[in-house]
Amino acid sequence: MSRVHIIGAGLSGLAAAVRLVENDVPVTVYEGAGQAGGRCRTFYDKHLERDIDNGNHLIMSGNKSALSYLKRIGAPDPVKDPLTGPPFAIYPFVDVRSGRRWTVRINEGPIPFWVFDKHWRVPDTGVMDYVKAAGIAFAGADKTVADVVDQQSPLYERFWEPLTLAVLNTTPEKGQAKLLWRVIRETFLLGGQAAIPLTARTGLGHAFVDPAGKFIEQHGGVVRLGARVRSIWMEGGEATSLNFADETVTLDEGDRVIFAIPPTRLKDLLPDIDPPDDDASILNIHFRMSKPVPTKALGEGPFIGMIGSDGQWAFVRDDVISLTTSASNAIGTDDRPNDDVVAKIWRETQIALDLGDEEYERVRVIREKRATPDQSPEGVRKRLKPETRWRNVFLAGDHIDTGVPATIEGSIRSGDKAAESVLALKA
Ligand SMILES: Cc1cc2nc3c(=O)[nH]c(=O)nc-3n(C[C@H](O)[C@H](O)[C@H](O)COP(=O)(O)OP(=O)(O)OC[C@H]3O[C@@H](n4cnc5c(N)ncnc54)[C@H](O)[C@@H]3O)c2cc1C
């Protein structure tokens, strides 16, 4: 049977491979790096002497494709393990400037009773703020979040801004409203059961990557690490070979190729393709403490949202506190030296987690320069379809037009879509 060659072992490539081996299609996955996972990976950090993720990743219980993927690669109840989260949809926040704390709680079921309860909704907001917010449901493709929501409402700083930064990795002034709405529709709008925030219990790699690699190999697939595709040859409207530094893989009749690599890399290999640009960066700071961190400030979950600060989300895993600043290119932290950024964000963290003057022992800064593709209205317009003009070449990745943002959910959907396109051709 013909083989599918998948370039890139990030989540999109792994999801495509999983879907294909489930359908008895032979696959080989080629990953340029020494480990799989791409932008969603765990590694042992020698300085911290801990396993850390490249950056905190939040997913939601309404992310159907991600949860289905986890189940299929071996986790019967992924919400409990390998993921973790609070038992209900609760989001603790602290305004770092004033020290004020609150928790947003989303009730179960589709009727949003939480909006009518001032202890559950965002503080200082009224029901009308939420009624007006519903306008985002009708936003056209050319509108940004800031175009369609009320920027004077307290909901802006305490809901729209953190949500847009977290989900679209861009500011409300730039991010496409329609893309954000799609996430709201698939999570908050369905009620608490679809809006529980989840993270990887012991690491992204242990949850999303390692079991997928095992699954693929157990089903006869091959995952080759350190195998970077340098070029691809095309002839007669289709790909004929993949070229690596020290070998050429000639494609057999009926073989297919899926490129599951980010836009910049894709353009290197297929210059006449025009995806959205790799765009926004994310700053991640991991602080190792001398002992397990008290989690009272987090309530029942593993993280807290921060308002009025450079650090936006603080996650705790045992003795490691990990801080995220999304859209760090737009926030301005990309232009400042590590020492300066670390000092400010550490002061914010002390407030957020109620640590008093406790100090960290070691710190690791990871700046992910190309964290996500452009998710402005212009960027979204340039998202690609899985099919290409070459008969046997398909695309996956978080820049594919899945209707959802460049996230774990989006990447896995793109991998599923690419696999379905390949399977449709086979049939
Ligand atoms: C710091 C950070 C925080 C994030 N936070 C969240 C979050 O909270 N929630 C969420 O859902 N999403 C989050 N994301 C987004 C999410 O990680 C990405 O959308 C997703 O991982 C992208 O997967 P991918 O397969 O499309 O691409 P990638 O992960 O980039 O995978 C592509 C793979 O292809 C390989 N490759 C590239 N070129 C070649 C080549 N020529 N030959 C062979 N291999 C090649 C790369 O090495 C890489 O492994 C975050 C991203 C970052 C960076």
Give an overview in words.
The chain has two domains: 4-40 and 203-277 and 376-426, FAD/NAD(P)-binding domain (3-Layer(bba) Sandwich), CATH 3.50.50.60; 83-200 and 278-373, Polyamine Oxidase, Chain A, domain 2. 29% of the residues lie in helices and 24% in strands. The chain is built from twelve helices and 20 strands. It has a seven-stranded mixed beta sheet, with helices on both faces. Strands 10-2-1-14-20 form a five-stranded parallel beta sheet, with helices on one face. A three-stranded antiparallel beta sheet has the order 5-9-6. Strand 12 (238-243) and strand 13 (248-250) form a beta hairpin. The longest helix has 19 residues, at 408-426. The chain is globular, with a radius of gyration of 22 Å. The relative contact order is 0.20. The model has no long low-confidence stretch (mean pLDDT 97). Bound molecules: flavin-adenine dinucleotide. Flavin-adenine dinucleotide binds at residues 7-13, 30-33, 38-40, 54-55, 57-59, 228-229, 260-262, 265, 282, 284, 368, 371-372, 397-398, 406-409, 411.
Set down the secondary structure blueprint.
Layout: E1 4-7, H1 11-22, E2 27-31, E3 42-45, E4 50-53, E5 59-60, H2 64-72, E6 83-84, E7 89-95, E8 101-106, H3 127-133, H4 145-148, H5 154-168, H6 177-186, E9 197-200, H7 204-218, E10 222-225, E11 231-235, E12 238-243, E13 248-250, E14 256-259, H8 263-269, E15 278-288, E16 303-307, E17 313-317, E18 320-325, H9 328-331, H10 338-352, E19 362-373, H11 377-381, E20 393-395, H12 408-426
Parallel strand pairs: 1-2, 1-14, 2-10, 7-16, 14-20
Antiparallel strand pairs: 3-4, 5-9, 6-9, 7-8, 11-12, 12-13, 15-18, 15-19, 16-17, 17-18
Helix pairs in contact: 1-7, 1-12, 2-12
The chain binds flavin-adenine dinucleotide.
